[in-house]
Design brief:
6-stranded parallel sheet, alpha/beta, Rossmann fold, Substrate Binding Domain Of Dnak, Chain:A, Domain 2, single chain
Length: about 650
């Protein structure tokens, strides 16, 4: 079934991005199914599923709650079923992010033992900072000795412990105390996931309130433990990101170069591909096959990883993965884990593109399996690049159709980079940001994150919400596919402040030299947003806990179980979170009310569901101004010029 691409308001274009719409037309003409075709074929989607009141946990069912059947076979009501379904999504999302972290810790251990082949400690300073933070001895020790102990320490955070996870101490002390009081401080990542799966099994936990609090506990094991570990180890191994320029959208593919796309979430292989693509022997080999060079570009969060550390271009976000192959210009697409559509194998067979799966846990039917071995990382990367070069000759030039659209982006705003941009090289500080918030030049800070989803016109909600926020003098932090969406329209450049930001935010951006929208990394790097909020709090003058800050989070086009876990750990951290469409809890008034109303009195954070990005911005601004009022920073005070005597008295 072909996707309708008209400007009729009843049948809108699939995306606000012209390159995406252009490629969907190409797909229709070639009768190749896309994600939008398959979405349309699924309509109408199951209402029992979207409301969270369908249960298939045991084989007495499946059961669904209706006005005539208010209880499942076992006696579970809508509250219990909706809560259990939500918890299983949180468990899956936490497992995905934490397994990402585990893989990186294993690589760090290999490097420490001298088995890491071409991997090395790229940021020794970050290594020492992490070691000292977690009380690992550094004096008179080599970096590899320190790395070995740090890897062992991080690995202990996955299994069960009698004490809460050590990385929780990165949160403000008042927040840690609240987690302890609520009994939601996790004591191990794996044990938190197992506990959730156990509690949602037939005949275990039936109390929806108790279940939801358990879900928050597991989500904290994602944000403050697994994802935090993943981000930290990535910085140690591959370098802590610094602002870097590149380009984004399908137009970054080259007509005369060998195009290799990395897609997924694990940066270990993509790091080596980025390095190997500059190998002079490989470049010579590419030229011998008629290519002008080698172009490595990314999709999804692997794209963000190589972008912020190497300046490699981004082809697109989640919904563009099939379209990239349809350009006819991709020699090899290398995939690993998460957000990789099974449809890629079918699409690649229509072109010369070779699809290569590199993860031992994520094989794709129809793809060539080349399981990645970090111990021979560079060699493996070279083999993949040679495969792509050999495939270049098979490219059918008559079928190459690369959209012209590409946009400049500035990415890589780690907390360390922000520190130095605000405070200088020798006096790193968040003070200028806090002062701008207190003075009202920046009204607040919002993290806009998450996926793209065919239920929503692709990129539209990300872009509109972000534009609304910066217009209202809110600084926006972004990760993942959301950052890619806004990058495609130029919001990730300093020039965007002149064109789109409110007057006072524009002044701050001009003074510091930053975009009004800061790219902070991949979706696992939402831990950087948590760290940024904590750094603002610790700088002083804006309350005692994260829930006091004029900040919020939003995921306007989310679709993944990982997003469910992310939203919950932000709420558990005291943050207001607006989702573009609800969690699957609409069939339970009690669970819905707990998450969107009562939770604020428990953790200080809560959810709101709002599909309209302008109305979502209104909700966020209302929340930010409420927090500013509570901090009394909206109260205008008369400015007084002190004489020398008064200054001495102040001291």
């Amino acid at each position: 079934m072909a996707t309708n691409l008209t400007n009729d308001s009843a049948k809108p274009l699939v995306s606000t991005d012209p390159a995406t719409n252009e490629m969907v037309v190409i797909a229709n003409d070639a009768n190749i199914s896309t994600v939008w075709d398959r979405f349309n074929a699924q309509k109408p989607q199951c209402k029992f599923g979207t409301e969270g009141v369908c249960c298939k946990i045991c084989h007495m069912g499946p059961c669904r709650i209706t006005p005539k059947a208010k209880l499942g076979v076992c006696g579970a009501d809508a509250d219990t079923i909706a809560a259990r379904n939500l918890l299983r999504e949180i468990a899956a999302g936490t497992a995905a992010h934490s397994d990402h972290g585990r893989m990186l810790v294993r690589t760090l251990k290999m490097v420490a033992q001298g088995k890491g082949s071409d991997y090395e400690i790229k940021d020794p300073k970050r290594l020492h900072e992490a070691a000292e933070l977690f009380e690992i001895a550094t004096a008179n020790r080599t970096d590899l000795e320190i790395a070995n102990d740090l890897a062992d320490f991080f690995m202990t955070q996955f299994s069960w412990s009698e004490k809460p996870n050590a990385t929780l101490k990165l949160a403000p002390e008042k927040r840690q105390a609240l987690w302890e009081k609520l009994e939601i401080a996790p004591s191990g990542i794996d044990s938190s996931v197992v506990e959730l799966m156990h509690r949602t099994n037939i005949g275990v936990d039936h109390n929806y309130r108790h279940l939801i609090m358990g879900g928050l506990k597991c989500s904290l094991a994602d944000g403050w433990v697994g994802s935090t570990i993943a981000t930290t180890v990535s910085d140690i191994l591959f370098g802590t990101p610094k602002p870097i320029r590149s380009r984004v959208n399908l137009g970054v593919l080259s007509e005369d170069k060998v195009n290799i796309i990395v897609h997924g979430h694990e940066p270990t292989l993509s790091e080596m591909l980025a390095v190997a693509s500059l190998d002079e022997d490989l470049l010579t080999y590419a030229r011998s096959k008629g290519a002008a060079g080698i172009n490595v570009a990314g999709i999804c969060c692997t794209a963000n990883e190589v972008l912020m550390r190497h300046g490699m271009p981004i082809v697109g976000n989640f919904l563009q993965q099939e379209l990239a192959i349809m350009t006819g210009a991709v020699e090899v697409m290398v995939v690993d884990v998460q957000c990789v559509m099974p449809s890629l194998a079918h699409v690649s067979k229509c072109f010369h593109t070779e699809l290569v799966s590199t993860s031992e846990i994520a094989q794709s039917m129809g793809a060539e399996q080349m399981t990645f071995d970090a111990d021979a990382g560079y060699e493996h990367a070279c083999r993949l690049i040679r495969k792509a070069i050999d495939n270049f000759e098979r490219r059918d030039k008559s079928r190459v159709h690369i959209p012209k659209e590409s946009m400049e982006v500035v990415a890589g705003f780690s907390n360390e980079a922000i520190y130095h941009m605000l405070g200088g090289h020798f006096r790193k500080s968040f003070r200028p940001l806090n002062d701008a918030i207190i003075s009202g030049r920046i009204r607040g800070v919002v993290g806009v994150v998450g996926c793209t989803n065919p239920k929503i016109q692709s990129d539209s909600a990300h872009v509109k919400l972000t534009e609304e926020l910066i217009k209202r003098n809110v600084l926006v932090l972004q990760t993942g596919c959301s950052a890619i969406a806004c990058g495609k329209v130029g919001l990730l450049t300093p020039e965007a402040a002149m064109l789109k930001a409110g007057d006072s935010l524009r002044e701050v951006c001009e003074a510091v030299g930053i975009p009004p929208v800061l790219h902070m990394g991949s979706c696992v790097d939402n831990s950087r947003i948590l760290a940024a909020a904590t750094n603002v709090l610790l700088e002083g003058g804006l309350g005692e806990d994260l829930s006091d800050l004029p900040v919020a989070g939003a995921a306007p086009e989310w679709m993944s179980e990982k997003a469910v876990a992310i939203g919950n750990y932000f709420v558990a951290s005291g943050i207001f979170v607006v989702l573009g469409h609800p969690l699957y809890v609409g069939g339970s008034e009690n669970v819905n009310r707990l998450l969107t109303e009562e939770m604020e009195g428990i953790t200080g954070g809560k959810f709101a569901w709002e599909p309209d990005p302008v109305k979502a911005a209104d909700l966020i601004m209302e929340h930010i101004e409420k927090k500013r009022d509570a901090l009394r920073i909206n109260v205008k005070t008369e400015r007084k010029l002190f004489d020398m005597k008064e200054r001495r008295e102040l001291q």
